[in-house]
Amino acid sequence: VQLQAYGGGLVQAGGSLRISCTVSDFTSDVYAVGWFRQAPGKEREGVSCISYNGGETYYTNSVKGRFTISRDNAKNTVYLQMNSLKPEDTAVYYCASLGSNYDLFHSIIIRFSLMQVDYWGNGTQVTVSS
């Protein structure tokens, strides 16, 4: 399984950006996917995750109400819509696969919280200027 994140860029505080993650696998619609980020000098942290069919989502507290995760399995793509961006959202954003349709979403959330991923994608830089 290969995951590729793209769509990052420079945006002003208060602005919006949508980043995407393509999952290259003919069975990509069975994978739960998470978004993680790593700011300079900080540890990587979980941002959001979504079930294999998009029916369930989870957000870390710092992005609730501002970020929305979604997926289009016909396009093998998971999105992260980021609104009301803040300078502290500046980071490299990574996507990763986190289990499959055999896993209850509660277990996916636990794996997400512990960053127990199956496959990491590359990162895409998001920079929010003040």
Description:
The protein is mainly beta. It is 7% helix and 52% strand. It is built from 1 helix and 10 strands, in the order E-E-E-E-E-E-E-E-E-H-E. The strands form 2 sheets. The chain has a 6-stranded mixed sheet. It is globular, with a radius of gyration of 14 Å. The chain starts with a strand and ends with a strand.
What tags apply to this protein structure?
7% helix, mainly beta, four-stranded antiparallel beta sheet, 10 strands, globular, single chain, 1 helix
Concise account of the structure shown:
The chain has 130 residues and is mainly beta.
Mean pLDDT: 95
Shape: globular
| Biggest sheet strand line-up | 2-10-9-4-5-6
Low-confidence stretches: none
- Tally of contiguous helical segments: 1
Helix content: under 10%
Distance between the termini: 37 Å
Overall radius of gyration: 14 Å
The beta-strand count equals 10
The largest pleated sheet is described as: 6 strands, mixed
Order of helices and strands: EEEEEEEEEHE
Spell out the blueprint of helices and strands.
Layout: E1 2-6, E2 9-12, E3 17-24, E4 31-38, E5 45-50, E6 57-59, E7 67-72, E8 77-82, E9 91-100, H1 105-113, E10 119-129
Parallel strand pairs: 2-10
Antiparallel strand pairs: 1-3, 3-8, 4-5, 4-9, 5-6, 7-8, 9-10
